[in-house]
Amino acid sequence: MANRLASAYSRYLLQHKDNPVDWYPWGDEAFAEAAQRDVPLFISIGYAACHWCHVMAHESFENPAIAEALNARFVSVKVDREELPDVDSVYMAACQAMTGQGGWPLSIFALPDGRAFYAGTYFPPAGQPGRPSFRQILDAVWEAWTERRDGVERQAAALAEGLGGVFSSQLLDVGAPAAPVDAGLLSAAVTELARSEDREHGGFGRAPKFPPSPVLEFLVRHAAAAGETSAVARGLAGRTLAAMCRSALFDALGGGFARYSVTADWSLPHYEKMLYDNAQLLRVLAHWVRLGGSADFPADEARTAAGLTAEWLVRELGLPEGGFASSLDADSERDGRSLEGGFYVWTRAELTTAVGGVGAAGRDSEDDGARLAGIFGLPSAGHAAPLHAGRALEPDERDLWERLRPSLLSERSRRMPPARDDKVVAGWNGLAVAALADAAWALGRPELLDDARRAAELLRTVHWDGGRLLRVSHEGAAAGVEGLLADYAGCAEGALALYAATGEERWYVWAEELLGVATQRFVEGGLLSDAPAGGGTAGPGVRSALAGARSLEPHDAEAPSGASLLAGSLLAHAAYSGSSEHRVLAGSILAGLPHLAAQGPRVVGWLLAVAQAALVGPLEVAVVGAPGEDRRRLHGEALASASPGAVIAVGEAAEGEARVPLLAFRAAADDGAPLAYVCRDFACRLPVSSPEELRDVLAHG
Fold first, then answer.
1. d(CA 260, CA 266)
2. For residue 171, what is the DSSP state?
3. What values do phi and psi take at 272, rounded to 5?
4. Distance between the two ends of the chain, CA-based, in angstroms?
5. What is the pLDDT of the chain when averaged over all its residues?
6. Strand 172-173 and strand 527-528: pairing?
7. Across residues 49-53, what is the average pLDDT?
8. In the predicted model, what is the mean pLDDT of residues 631-635?
9. Would you tell me how many other CB atoms lie within 10 Å of the CB of residue 131?
10. Which stretches of 341-458 are assigned E, i.e. beta strand?
C-alpha cells in the first residue's frame, strides 16, 4: 500500500511512496503527529539522483523489519533537499556540528518540534567497523529517548542555540555603507587560488574534486581585465577547464559534465548529471571562447565542449512544457542490474563491436576500434570504463574520434538511460537561461536563444504570479513552495542575460520586477537572509531548530550563493537603469567580501566575479537604430566583448525616455544608421557606427 508520499510531486518522494515506512512529507502534520504521540522525528533528506540515497532506501526503507521499528517508535519524514534547500541546510549544519562531516542521504533524529539531537548520513543494514547498523542506531536513539529524555532535550536545546548563533552571524548587514572594491583583494584571491592548484591534475585541492564553477567565472573575468595577475588567472582557468573537459568528468560522447570526480585526476566520476553544474560550466566555456582561450585550452576545443554541453542540456534535460529538468541519475541498468555509470562505460569489446562496418576505405574497423580503445585507455581485461583520453587529442586521433562517434552514440542510445528528475527549479533554470543566451552568441548558435526563451517563459508564466516566485514546478504546474533568494536572483540573472542577447524588453521588465520583490522580501531590519521574511519554505520546524533565527548561507555551494547572485543582478540592473538604490545595495553586499574571502576564495567565487565587474564599471553598451543587419552586427560585437559583467541594451533610437533607461535619449546617425554608445562610471564615449570602431572602444574601456 502506498504511503502519504503517493500524492507528492517530487520524484525523490515518489521513489519512496511504496516503502513500508509510514513516511510523511515535510509539514505541520508530521510535527503534530510526533507531538501527539510523544515520539522523536526521523528526518531523511536526499534527492532523486543521489546514489547512496538509493542504496539506503533499498537496504533499509524497503526492509519490513526496519520499517516496523520506524513506524512504532518514530514519525518518519522525507525531504527533497532540492525542493527545500533551507531545511536541508539547517540539518546539514547540525550533522556537521555533531559529526564533523555531512552528505546525503542525511539522517536526522529530532524532537517533535524539529530540534535535532542526533545526526548521521548513510547507515548500513549490518554493522561495519566504525559504522553501526541502521537498526542499532534506531535502538540506541529510542533507548536514549525513553531512558535519558532530559539529556536528549538539553543536547537539542544547546545545538539549536549554537546553530542559531552561527546562522545569525552569517546574515549580511546591507544597511552598512558600501566601500569601493579593492583591486588588491581580487589579485590576492588569484594568488591564493594559484597556491591551492593541483598542478599535476588540474583544479583545486584533493579528491573528491568538484567543478569549481563560480571560481572559474571569477578567473575568466579577472583574466579579461588588465592587471598584474590577469595572466595567472588565465592560466588557472585554462588548465582547470582543460583538465575537466579532457577527463572522464566530461561525457565526450554525448556532452555534459558529471557531478564530481572521486579521484584527484578526474578519472572516476560520480555519474549523476545536474542542471546547475552544466548551466554554470556552459556559461564559463562560452565566456572562455569569448576571451579567446589560452595555449593550455584553445578556444576551438572549448567551443566543441560547450557545443556538446548545450546540445546535451537541451536534448536530455529539456522538457515539453519548457524549462529544464533537475538531474539525471548516476545509476542505470546494465546487464540486468543497476550500476553506477552503467550508461556511460565501455569495454574494449563493446567499443569494437559498436564501430564495426565504419572503418575507412582499406582499413579494418576492428583496428579502428582497437586504436580508439587505446587512445581512451580502456583496460584489456574486459572491465568497463568511461571514454576519455586525459589529454588533448592529436589531429589524426580527433579525426578518428569524430568519424566513429556517431556509431558509438547510436549504440549507446540502445542502452537503458538513467532516470531523470523532471522537477523544474526556478533558480537553476535561471542560470540555464543565462548560459544559453551567452552561448548562443559565443558559439554562433542562435537556435539556443529559442531554448532560453522557452525556459524563461515557463519561469515567467508558471513560477511567477507578479508578486511571488515559486521555487518548483512539475509538468507545467508550480507547487506551493516559495522561492529562496537564489531563485529570485537566479531568475533575474537569466532574464537580464536574455534581454542582452535579444533586446526583448519583456525580459528586462521581468528582471526589474523580480529584483523589486526580492529587495522587499529578503531584507528585514537591514539584514539580508536566504528565505523571505516570515520563514519561507522552512516553516516552524526549522525555525525551532535554529532557535528562531533567520539564516543566510553567504558561501557558494553547488551553485552561487543567493547573496552573490543578488549582488550581480542588482549591479547589472543599476547599470541599465541608473538605480542608485540597487547600486548601493549591491555595494553593501560586496562590502562583506573581505571577511568572506579571508575564509578562502574558493567559497566566494561568484561574489569575486561580481566584484570584478564592479571594479571595471561595469561597461554599459547601448546599440540603437532600426532593426537590420547593421544593428545586428553592432549588437554582436558588443556581445563579443569579454569585459567583466558588461551590460548591453539594444533597441530603436529614443528621442526621450525609454523603458530601458540606458536607451533613453540615444539617437541613431543622421542617415538613420545604427550607433553604439559605450559608457563607464557615469561617463560616455562618442558613439560609433562600425563593429571595428566598437571593438576598439570596448578594448580600451
1. 8
2. -
3. -60, 145
4. 66
5. 91
6. antiparallel
7. 86
8. 97
9. 15
10. 420-421, 424-425
Separation between Cα atoms, residue 677 and residue 688, nearest integer Å: 7
Residue-wise over 207-244: b if at least 16 C-beta within 10 A, else e?
A: eebbbbbbbbbbbbbbbbbebebbebbbbbbbbbbbbb
Q: Give the CA count within 13 Å in the CB-facing half-sphere of 519.
A: 20
The H or E element spanning position 270 is strand 269-270
**pLDDT at residue 37 is higher than 60:** yes
Measured between alpha carbons, how far is 83 from 682 in angstroms, rounded to an integer? 41
> Cα dist. 157→27, 225, 474, 544, 545 in Å?
21, 50, 37, 10, 8
DSSP 469: B
Residue with cell 539522483: 49
Angle between helices 299-312 and 275-291 (to 10 degrees): 150
> At 265, which amino acid appears?
D
Of 101, 50, 95, give the one whose Cα is nearest residue 260.
Answer: 50
Spell out the long-range contacts of 10-13 with Cβ–Cβ below 8 A and sequence spacing 24 or more: 10/48, 10/80, 10/83, 10/423, 10/472, 10/474, 11/48, 11/419, 11/421, 11/422, 11/423, 12/46, 12/47, 12/48, 12/50, 12/53, 12/78, 12/80, 12/82, 12/421, 13/78, 13/80
Task: Read off the pLDDT of residues 77-105 as tens digits, 9 standing for 90 and up.
Answer: 999 999 888 888 889 888 888 888 888 99
Secondary structure (DSSP) of 638-659: HHT---TT-EEEEES--SS--S
C-alpha distances out from residue 291 to 10, 288, 683, Å: 40, 5, 25
Q: How does pLDDT run across 284-337, given as a tens digit for each residue?
A: 999 999 999 999 999 999 999 999 999 999 999 999 999 999 999 998 888 888
Helices (H), 340-394: 348-354, 365-375
H-type alpha helices, 413-446: 426-442
The amino acid at residue 158 is A
Q: Is there a contact between 492 and 573 (Cβ–Cβ < 8 Å)?
A: yes
Residue keyed to cell 509510514? 22
The predicted structure's pLDDT at residue 303: 98
pTM of the model: 0.90
497: left (phi over 0), alpha (psi -120 to 50) or beta: alpha
Q: Which cell goes with 94?
A: 547540525
CA distances from 357 to 87, 252, 348, 360, 403 (A): 54, 22, 16, 9, 12
Residue 590, classed as helix, strand or coil, is helix
Q: Say how far apart CA 582 and CA 115 lie, in whole Å.
A: 37
- Read off the amino acid at residue 452: A
